[in-house]
Specification:
single chain; alpha/beta; eight-stranded parallel β-barrel; 8 strands; 42% helix; binds phosphoenolpyruvate
């Protein structure tokens, strides 16, 4: 953690709970994190729960994220959701290019980039996910893959907009597997991402960029991860589904 960057802890609820449970999870989380002022707290329910959770967290220190969006304004795109619809549902953030979207739904750096640009155009803050598979890491392709995802995902994003982007580094082999990257492994990739962003933009932009780590983050490992100089937050799947565990994690020391 670097004191110049405000930590951001986000929960990705994936396709796990219907709106009654989502509302309940949010309601329980509110008092548990009410006193937290020095970091950003974000929850990412499924689309069908966004409005219910928005209503529940209104006026609190918890922000709302969607898990995806479509890059077009509107029209004949059956099953898709636009940026305006997310704003209308109370979202401030949107998770883009999660590895599950890349892996199961054919998202590419190009579509990730279109989504990020549309989010920024509409005033949503993108949490742009990158990360390598185990096979890619073992084949020595880590730099190449991360470089391609960062450069491709940020293509044509202007400097001013870049100040609003959060990048989440999520090694695919660590997501939902209980295998966390070591704090050093994670920090190395965060530093690499920062270097790429410095080359694309400037030292200032790179220094201000918040980079979350994601991949089996729990209360047991969050403090060690957050102690690393280039780790500015966490994107949390499993451990965000229980209010007590997410709140404890958010309040890491
Ligand atoms: C995620 O979905 O982004 C994630 C990191 O999941 P988990 O914390 O369950 O590994």
């Amino acid at each position: 953690m670097n004191p110049k960057r405000r930590p951001i802890l986000a929960g990705n609820w994936k396709m796990n709970i219907p709106s009654t449970q989502a509302r309940e999870l949010a309601s329980k989380l509110i008092p548990l994190v009410a006193g937290v002022k020095d970091r950003d707290i974000v929850v990412g329910p499924p689309y069908t729960s966004l409005a219910a959770v928005a209503e529940t967290i209104k006026g609190t220190n918890i922000g709302l994220a969607a898990q995806n969006l479509h890059w077009e304004e509107k029209g004949a795109f059956t099953g898709e959701i636009s940026a305006d619809m997310l704003l209308d549902s109370g979202c401030k953030y949107v998770i883009i290019g999660h590895s599950e979207r890349r892996q199961y739904f054919g998202e590419t750096d190009e579509t990730v980039n279109k989504k990020a640009r549309q989010a920024l155009k509409k005033g949503l803050l993108p949490i742009l996910c990158v990360g390598e598979t185990l096979a890619e890491r073992e084949a020595g392709k880590l730099n190449e893959i991360i470089g391609r995802q960062v450069i491709g995902g940020l293509k044509d994003i202007l400097t001013d907009d870049m100040k609003k982007v959060v990048i989440a580094y999520e090694p695919v082999w660590a997501i939902g597997t209980g295998k966390t990257a070591t704090p050093e492994q994670a920090n190395d990739v965060h530093a690499l991402i920062r270097q790429k962003v410095k080359a694309l933009y400037s030292a200032d932009i790179a220094e201000g960029l918040r980079i979350q780590y994601g991949g089996s983050v729990t209360l047991e490992n969050v403090s060690q991860l957050m102690a690393m100089p280039d780790i500015d937050g966490a994107l949390v799947g499993g451990a965000s589904l229980k209010p007590e565990s997410f709140a404890a994690l958010v309040k890491f020391k």
